[in-house]
Write a structure and sequence with these properties.
By secondary structure, the protein is α/β, with parallel strands linked by helices. It has eight helices and ten strands. It has a six-stranded mixed sheet with strand order 6-7-8-3-9-10, with helices on both faces. A four-stranded antiparallel sheet has the order 2-1-4-5, with helices on one face. A hairpin with a 2-residue loop joins β1 and β2.
């Protein structure tokens, strides 16, 4: 059984249909990258998976459990990095992670916080306020926050948006490290080459529908670019 199962998923805001009959199964331990233009429905899909938005129709199950039946329980499975970093600017990196560790009931929180801050390269800045951080540092701290409770599923919504090339390359290296066989990753991005490097499965979402689904090992960047342009009109 797939870890994430989506059947006939629909989402509408008033008369505007954002998602139109999404069917998707994601196996445990896979790294799936979802491409698509602005307005395709990528963020809406991740928000539904993260239990932050309710679907209009269809079914979404995580580990066999319908998310609408137990959203609080499902959140224990999930780590989310969204457009909003969900961090407090006037707290230090350490204080932010300590706050979230209490929310999640993390055992031995000090050791876990130190481990993650070292992993994302922010241990020397642990006492500094988040408002003094660069965009790339904020994103790295947001990943540490998402990993605090060691969730089996990591949802990443355009994690490289707004980063300069150097920060984006550092982010790519970090995402390679935090993925792996024990964690399932679903990431959205506009950056085809970077996303392809992180994926073992690639999807394209356009007009609220999944229009392409392939094993990343079978698709090169030179293949993907014209496919993407064909499906989304070069957007």
């Amino acid at each position: 059984m797939a870890l994430i199962e989506i059947e006939g998923l629909e989402k509408a805001f008033g008369r505007h249909r954002v998602l139109r009959g999404i069917h998707l199964a994601i196996e445990a331990g896979s790294s799936v990258v979802l491409f698509g233009p602005n307005g395709a429905g990528k963020t809406t899909l991740l928000r539904i998976l993260a239990t932050l938005s309710r679907p209009t129709a269809g079914h979404v199950r995580v580990a066999g459990v319908e998310i609408r039946a137990n959203p609080e329980g499902i959140r224990q499975y999930l780590g989310l990095v969204s457009h909003a970093p969900l961090l407090y600017d006037d707290l230090s990196a350490w204080e932010n992670l300590r706050f979230y560790a209490r929310l999640y009931g993390v055992e031995r929180p000090e050791a876990r916080i130190q481990e993650l801050l070292e992993r994302v390269g922010l241990w020397p800045r642990r006492k500094d306020l988040v408002r003094t951080f660069s965009r790339g540092m904020v994103q790295r701290l947001a990943i540490a926050r998402a990993l605090l409770h060691n969730p089996p599923i990591l949802l990443l919504d355009d994690p490289d948006t707004g980063l300069d090339p150097q920060a984006a390359e550092m982010m790519t290296a970090l995402l390679r490290e935090v993925g792996g066989s024990a964690r399932t990753v679903l990431m959205t991005t506009h950056h085809l080459e970077r996303g392809l490097a992180l994926a073992d499965r690639v999807l394209i979402l356009a007009g609220g529908r999944l229009v392409f689904d392939a094993d990343a090992a079978t698709v090169s960047y030179n293949d993907l670019r014209p496919l993407y342009d064909r499906y989304v009109g070069g957007a």
